[in-house]
Design a protein that fits this description.
The structure holds 2 protein chains of 2 kinds.
Chain A lengths: L4 E3 L2 E4 L5 E6 L6 E7 L5 E8 L2 E5 L6 E5 L5 E5 L8 E8 L9 E2 L3 E5 L1
Parallel strand pairs in A: 2-11
Antiparallel strand pairs in A: 1-3, 3-8, 4-5, 4-9, 5-6, 7-8, 9-10, 9-11
Chain B lengths: L3 E2 L4 E5 L4 E7 L6 E7 L6 E7 L4 E4 L2 E6 L4 E6 L8 E8 L9 E2 L3 E6 L1
Parallel strand pairs in B: 2-11
Antiparallel strand pairs in B: 1-3, 3-8, 4-5, 4-9, 6-7, 7-8, 9-10, 9-11
The chains are: A mainly beta, B mainly beta.
Chain lengths: ~110, ~110
């Protein structure tokens, strides 16, 4: 089975621009979560999607949004980029997102905002 | 308020010795705990988990201990190998809710010296 894939792997943007990141989960997985990792910080939960519906949301401003398609692929969008948005963005998938499931992570998209 | 804390940002041990990584949590609703390992330029990979009904779970060289009264868990690696050098994240979730939302610690960088 192919793992979780994320595109692009690296991205450079300037302040004020917007960006869209993509995540393809493991085949058959319906839950996709997004996390932000910055230096010195753990993985901060952004949101989780299941069957095209956002089920959980972390404490991030409304500039961060996402969606999930019928094939479970997910996109994350950040509008009006700020320097502090520079981070590694990780997506993780699991089968149904129930309490004891392991999440499988993609390699991440490293975003640099100049 | 950081609900999952890994107070040691780094740990260095000699090959063959024991590595002990610690994690504390504050949310008493957490009842499922996981450890992930992360190499540079890769996403975290699942290592081992434990539910709150147990106080120990073992998988080969890796053992996780849970002390619910102290809200503390630890990961023991015996014997440590140079290939274990990575960042280790502790994560917690509530089994009754969605695993898609896990709360992570900041990570501990383990260096195993040959």
């Amino acid at each position: 089975k192919a793992g979780v894939t994320q595109t692009p792997r690296y991205l450079i943007k300037t302040r004020g621009q917007q960006v869209t990141l993509s995540c393809s989960p493991i085949s058959g997985h319906r839950s996709v979560s997004w996390y932000q990792q910055t230096p010195g910080q753990g993985l901060q939960f952004l949101f989780e999607y299941f069957s095209e519906t956002q089920r959980n949301k972390g404490n991030f401003p409304g500039r961060f949004s996402g969606r999930q398609f019928s094939n479970s692929r997910s996109e994350m969008n950040v509008s009006t980029l700020e320097l502090g948005d520079s981070a590694l963005y990780l997506c993780a998938s699991s089968s149904s997102g129930t309490g004891m499931e392991t999440q499988y992570f993609g390699p991440g998209t490293r975003l640099l905002v100049l | 308020d950081q609900q999952v804390k890994q107070n040691s940002p780094s740990l260095s041990v000699q090959e063959g010795r024991i590595s002990i990584l610690n994690c504390d949590y504050t949310n008493s609703m957490f009842d499922y705990f996981l450890w992930y390992k992360k190499y540079p330029a890769e996403g975290p990979t699942f290592l081992i988990s434990i539910s709150s009904i147990k106080d120990k779970n073992e998988d080969g060289r890796f053992t996780v201990f849970l002390n619910k009264s102290a809200k503390h868990l630890s990961l023991h690696i015996v014997p440590s190998q140079p290939g274990d050098s990575a960042v280790y994240f502790c994560a917690a979730s509530e089994m009754g809710t969605n695993a898609g939302k896990s709360t992570f610690g900041d990570g501990t960088t383990l260096t195993v010296k040959p």
